[in-house]
Design a protein that fits this description.
63 residues; mainly alpha; 2 helices
Length: 63
């Protein structure tokens, strides 16, 4: 019975922290676009240009 004196306030504090974190996430836009990342895996990434034969280093990094 004495443990309830500790557990009830601890549970209330944890609930308050969870609610505060949830509202922080909503205010910062974490739930704005729920479908975008799911649809992005369906499309291919743009292709990088292939290095030409005149490129002696062989790197495909262009400036």
């Amino acid at each position: 019975m004495e443990s309830l004196i500790i557990l009830i306030p601890l549970a209330l504090i944890l609930i308050a922290v969870a609610i505060k974190v949830f509202f922080w996430a909503v205010d910062n836009g974490q739930f704005d676009d729920l479908e975008g990342p799911a649809h992005s895996i369906l499309f291919d990434e743009p292709q990088r240009p292939q290095p030409s034969k005149s490129d002696k280093t062989g790197s495909s990094i262009t400036k």
